[in-house]
Amino acid sequence: MLPQELLDKMGEAQDLQGWVSVDFLVEYDPIYNPELLELFIATPYTERSARAIHLKNQYELDLSNTLEPVEKAAYLNINHLLQRGTGLKFYELDMEGAVRYKQWVLESEFELRPGTDNTFDYNNLRLVRDYPEKVTRLTIGETQSMHSRLLLGQRIQGAKYSTDFQLRPDYVTEPISEFSFLLERDSTVEVFINGIEVATLRLKAGPVDLLDFPLSIGLNEVLLKIIDDTGREKLLSFNTIKGPSILAPGKKDFAFSLGVTGNGSEYSSDPVFSTFYRQGISETFTASAEFQAQPDHIGIGGGFDWANPWFNTSGDIALSSTPLGTGLAMRTWISRAFKPLQLSGRLDFRTENYFTHSETNESDRIKTVAELSVLVPRIYNFGSLRFRSSHISRWLGETEMRQDLIWNYTLSTSWNFRANISYSNQDPSFELKFTVNYVHKTDTTHRTHSLQRQSNQFNLRSEMTGYQEFHGVDWNASHNFVLPDERELYNNVRGSVRYTGNRFVTFYRARINDLLDEEDLQQTLSLRSSLTWADGHFAVGLPIDNSFALIVGGEGLDQMNLLVNSAGKRFRATPRMGAVAPNLREYSLSKVSVSAESDSYEFEDYAFKLFSKYKSGFLIKVATEEEIMGTALISAYLLDQFEQNLSLCPVIINFLDRPESEPRMSFTNGEGFIRMSGLSPGEKYELQVNYKDEDLKAVQLYYYFEIPEDIGRKEYELGFMKPKQVLKEKPKLIFVKNATSAPYNEETDSNKAPLILINHAVKELPKNKLQKIVEDFSKSAQSPYGQNTSKQYEIRKSSRILSLMPYYLSQFGLPLQHSKKPHLEKAKPNNNIYHIHYLWLHGTPSPIILKKEEIKEEVKVEVKTIKPLEEISYQKFEQAKIEEALQEDHPPMEVTQFVLPFHDDDDFPYSLPDLGQQALL
Prior knowledge:
With 921 residues, the protein is mostly beta strands.
């Protein structure tokens, strides 16, 4: 993009005819390409537009070509749980489900416990409506009253309207860090944050805006190392801060709720109203306010989050009013990083009359809380060290004090060491704990051994897990041996195995707390599955995690098994029941691919991109007429131009009636046999084969067929197919008006030869005449200006056109027959003869197919494509460039370039010869 200032300058420099002098563009390094008629100019780096580069690269969400959830969908997760212990048997049925209609979702959880006082219960019954464009959610039913800081939220039965940033993954809530600089030359830029390289960029000269650095909480040192094309190095550095809960300026986070306190089927008659509000004031400061009111209790509070160059801090203050009086609570938190230390501290204070709604026990009411944490992330490659100290005092209860010093060192991926020294006033003695962990991983197993020594006991634990992906089985076994100093030993064993099938998960777990007690055996058996429904289709599948996709075979594929791959897991759809992809995350992109299970079908994988909403369902019909238009199974043997089998060759399948469809890829077997499925009756197709022959020469062959309308479900055999060559590119004709022919001279330099129009007439001949024509014309594969040209070409003059007789190369296997009449205006084409003309300029031919009605002083050219004639659009070439390519004494000419339409008629039976320069086939 050119800056507006440059465009204005160029407008002022135009002459009366609209031309701009090259002298004006000298400072922009102009480069002119006469062949492509292109002019390149390089604007000075100081005048170029700034480029914005996001280092995190997370703000663009590509929703193009994504499938939308169906309007009506539902699922029900079912979990059968059977537990057995010492003389105890217990059965439980847990269900969780949701019903979605358009934008509304009704969801709940149910529990059935036969033989207990509470046989049936439910919870989390609510109606949900999302507004992604506003990043908000409306909840009616059981929910959490509000986000909270000092005032605690609670479970209510009512309604809540609040922000939910998860509804928009591309929605940016935190401030975006930015740094601008200017590059004088094309350069490589290395970005370091706190001494760690996070990005390497190759940038062109000009202004650059780097945005959204991946910063850590606290003060960050950013260093840019710039190395230009000359090798010169330059360093730029700056400091920036990031707070833990800072909102970008103007961004809001809020919640409003009204209801009664309660959970599940139990709720009170006490109403409660809550509100919470946060807003970004600046890039470093965010303010908040909260309010909660219910009978006999009112709370109000405010707070802030502030990030500055010295530290990060937050503060809150709140008041509560109860029948016991008015109370005050305050909290502050501060953190600062000093290399190599990271410090953080917290201080809380509450007056005696400050209450929250959950503080029902007087002994639990806190008076003060003081915490201090010091972290040394690295001690000269000998691990990390952390010190923590806490002091908690209560108005009526005991005061608690505790200090911990923890050292952690990882020697390798297998060995880890940890030491912990603790002191508490509850047990006034130092406690020493030392742990050694050994981890060993393979493709299918994971083993962990832990040896721990505490002040009063010795603990040895071994655990092993395994997974067999092909069989869907994973298992776990562990042994925990504890030897106390003054008590009996503790020796227990646990084991579990889980099988994940196509439509259910079964899980068994056993535990023996004491190996010496034979009756101390606890067992658990569970069976989990789901019932799904989407737009009239039903299926049984694995338990649903928020959203799902139901995949069924449509017309033509409804009698075969399909394999579905979603998030690395495979599921199977059968003719009786579709497959369920159960693991789609809400408001995120997911990919689901579908393929045929049987190798007997040449069925290409189909990939679908899904964007899930809250507890939504998708219905994917594979190979229906609306989706893929494919119902036919086609087979054929492909032959090359020498009627030999094309073995082990890639084949591209093009949809001629649906050019917008993506081509498919398949392969022939060792005998040249190919089977294709998913094609539609009544449509035309093209097979494109690219390979190299014995001489390593690239060969391109085309095959055409049309599937009958009444093919039905049976396999349609095309038999042995021979290739057809057609014009596959848009050739160019340069026709020169008023060009005078030069006398023929064998010594004429071909690089300075005048323009020559070569006239070919093509006609299909019997095979018995083909060999002689091939022998005659394959002997002369040189330029028409080579030696002994007169023996192979008949050269005739006319006042306007110099015509040569046919020229031919044998590798295409089709004959050419020259016209006996050298003048084009006397050559009368018929249904069997087409004229192929070559324009020879600097030894480069351009083959075209033309029908010449007549030649006059003003030449009119029309295109012959079997279909009705089409007028040719044209544009003027620059006359000086053409004249420069010809003889210096050649008379002036008027030159016009014609771009011919695409020739895609599959009935065209002829090949165009390759003159050794360019095969436009």
